[in-house]
Amino acid sequence: MIFRSTGLGKTELVGKVDDLKRQGDYLIMYVDVTDPVKWRIRVGMGFRDIAKVMACMAKRSVVGFLLSPKQWRNKEPEHPGDF
Questions:
Q1: Helices 47-57, 60-67: inter-axial angle, 10-degree rounding
Q2: How far is C-alpha 43 from the geometric centre of its chain's CA atoms?
Q3: Per-residue tens of pLDDT for the chain, all 83 residues
Q4: φ, ψ for residue 66, nearest 5 deg
Q5: Which of 18, 35, 45, 46 could disulfide-link to 30, CB 3.0 to 4.6 Å?
Q6: 43 within 8 A of 23, measured Cβ to Cβ
């Protein structure tokens, strides 16, 4: 997983989702950033946030991507360029 932020300029962070836990009315997603720094990012998602993510996941282009056997075997995905 790669991350970019306007606050970090052109810096690109590399990390992975580590865990997802319920805490009250939120799901907390834990992301471990490994490069260029070691950070633990926490994302608190409320019901509306999760509903929006699920609606985006239901788009035809995303479902096609997720169901593509090519993606399941792709150990080194091509960089998406500037995003």
A1: 70
A2: 10
A3: 999 989 988 899 999 999 999 999 999 999 999 999 999 999 999 999 999 999 999 999 999 999 999 998 998 999 999 98
A4: -65, -30
A5: 18
A6: no
Rounded to an integer, what distance in angstroms lies between the CA atom of residue 14 and that of residue 60? 27
Domain edges within the chain: 2-73
The residues near 73 (Cβ < 8 Å, ≥ 6 apart) are none
The token pair that represents 9 in the structure block: 């300029």
Q: In what order do the strands lie in the sheet with 39-45?
A: 2-4, 12-23, 26-35, 39-45
